[in-house]
Amino acid sequence: MSLPFLPFALPDVGEEEVDEVADTLRSGWLTTGPKVKRFEKAFGEFLGGGLECLAVNSATSGLHLALEALGIGSDHEVITSTLTFTASAEIARYLGADVRLVDIDPATLNLDIDQVRKKITKRTGAIIPVHYGGLACEMDDLLDLAQQNDIKVVEDAAHALPTTWRKCLVGTLDSDAAVFSFYANKSMTTGEGGMVVTRDPQVAQRIKVMRLHGIDVDAFDRFTSDKPSWYYEVVAPGFKYNMTDIAGAIGIQQLAKLPGFLERRRHLAARYMEGLRNLPLRLPADAPAGDTHAWHLFVVRLLDEAPTDRDQVIQHLSDCGIGTSVHYVPLHRQPYWRDSYELVPEMYPNADFAYQRMLTLPLYTRMTDQDQDRVINALHSVLG
């Protein structure tokens, strides 16, 4: 009897989320309303102290809103990593800004600060560090570099909940904004959704207006007022980026489970580290001592002595009924970015070398130890 297919990722949703969503459906308020406000408040309390938390319908829209609120436009360039999903860069193009991609540190797979330094010009308006896989970037040097050059920093924290840097949660650092993702495969989910976090009240106010059509009054406040409050003003050409209460309801319960989710991910990451240590693989870097890796992704890279290549390993795991992925096809290899900026792989040797050897193994909280043993055993059978 063949074993069931083991997917690359599955959301971990229980009866608590079902009950919270059912309560929302019965309430008659489905779009942005009381559940989103509760979720924003709870998220701020989780991070702790002095933060504005603004729920949106995706991390992509959150990044777009953050750059727009910081004044990034066609006069600017935005620097980010080539080893990321296209959303990290495309949002700059929404605003007419140019993108400058940088290579990665081969140990951490995060952007290389020295490469960032070389790409800074008079047009550089923002840097978007991507906390790859759940491991924090070298934020001290990056923030110092940005401050010295009067450059904004918007953290792409899609992978980084709850990651820490110098024992501080990502989202609480001295960047201008951080943006989290609640997509279905993330460390917690709302199905689709994101959260922008900032300490700057002016940035927060601009995002509040722009996430819902540039209207100056919150729709929930207007529609629940006990006095006539029909009048509103459109003060900017905004977007439709608000989170629904259905998504917020899921987020409330997922956030409460996040500490337990982290412990499970850490347990699975440790088992992978032990089970794969004798194979010809480069295992992912862990967080520095005292800090937390969110373990959103577990990315391995084949060493030169491996008896086969990456694609054959992926095929073998597929034949064993195991799903995998690759994070990511670097942006310098994607037709739009390659052709728009005349990019070639030789410009990004570390990212390109890593890409040709990497694969991402299943790691999610519903995964059992027995499920993980299937992955480990399959890798031993093809690489051992």
Number of helices: 13
**Shape annotation:** globular
By CATH, the architecture of the largest domain is named: 3-Layer(aba) Sandwich
**Strand line-up across the major sheet:** 1-9-8-5-4-2-3
Terminus-to-terminus distance: 25 Å
Break the fold down into its secondary structure elements and pairings.
Elements: H1 15-27, H2 34-47, E1 52-56, H3 59-69, E2 77-81, H4 87-94, E3 98-102, H5 113-119, E4 124-128, H6 139-148, E5 152-156, E6 164-165, E7 168-169, E8 177-181, E9 194-198, H7 201-210, H8 219-224, H9 245-275, E10 281-282, E11 298-302, H10 310-319, H11 335-341, H12 349-355, E12 358-361, H13 369-383
Parallel strand pairs: 2-3, 2-4, 4-5, 5-8
Antiparallel strand pairs: 1-9, 6-7, 8-9, 10-11, 11-12
Short description:
Helix content is 39%, strand content 13%. The protein has 13 helices and twelve strands.
Word description of this protein:
- By secondary structure, this protein is α/β, with parallel strands linked by helices.
- Helix 3 (59-69) crosses helix 7 (201-210).
- The longest helix has 31 residues, at 245-275.
- A seven-stranded mixed beta sheet has the order 1-9-8-5-4-2-3, sandwiched between helices. A three-stranded antiparallel beta sheet has the order 10-11-12, with no helix packed on it.
- It is globular and about 70 Å long.
- The two termini are 25 Å apart.
- The protein has 13 helices and twelve strands.
- The protein folds into two domains: 15-255, Aspartate Aminotransferase, domain 2 (3-Layer(aba) Sandwich); 258-383, Alpha-Beta Complex (Aspartate Aminotransferase, domain 1).
- The protein has helices spanning 15-27, 34-47, 59-69, 87-94, 113-119, 139-148, 201-210, 219-224, 245-275, 310-319, 335-341, 349-355, 369-383, and strands at residues 52-56, 77-81, 98-102, 124-128, 152-156, 164-165, 168-169, 177-181, 194-198, 281-282, 298-302, 358-361.
